[in-house]
Amino acid sequence: MKRQAALVACGGALAYTVSKVTLALRQELGIHGFPAPPESYVPWQSADIAAAQFGNAGVGLVAALLALLLARSAGYGRLRVVVLAVSWIGVVAIGAGVAGFALRAFGVAPSLGPPAADWTTYAALAVGFGWVGAWAMATIEAHRTWSRARVGRR
Known about the structure:
It contains four helices and two strands; from the N terminus they run αββααα. It is mainly α. It has one domain. The longest helix has 35 residues, at 119-153. The radius of gyration is 17 Å and the shape is elongated. It starts with a helix and ends with a helix. The model has no long low-confidence stretch (mean pLDDT 87).
């Protein structure tokens, strides 16, 4: 179960990475299904938008790597605590982002932008919810597995 959840989380992170690279190449703000309003572009230069989106893509690659680290059966010694802590920070951060986009998509928080326009919005939400859920499951299972292994060594 842990390995499958970690691989799904890795896939979600890679989907995010690909979407951010695509937006960087187009020099667009936002996320697929949730374009940023045109007035948000005013203070930005095109190169700044691309750099920001490539930076976000880098964060996606780090998230994918973390998910793969969670798939391992063996712990990482003291690094285990760092992997678990950073994973939980990622779950909370991505979860908050997905929750915010869901509020926007369903028109609950109009201050976040217009509600869903088409199917891509719901597809992006489905990927986001799957990513967060799988990442949380993989983190919980990694903690359980690594704790049991640690107790067995005592």
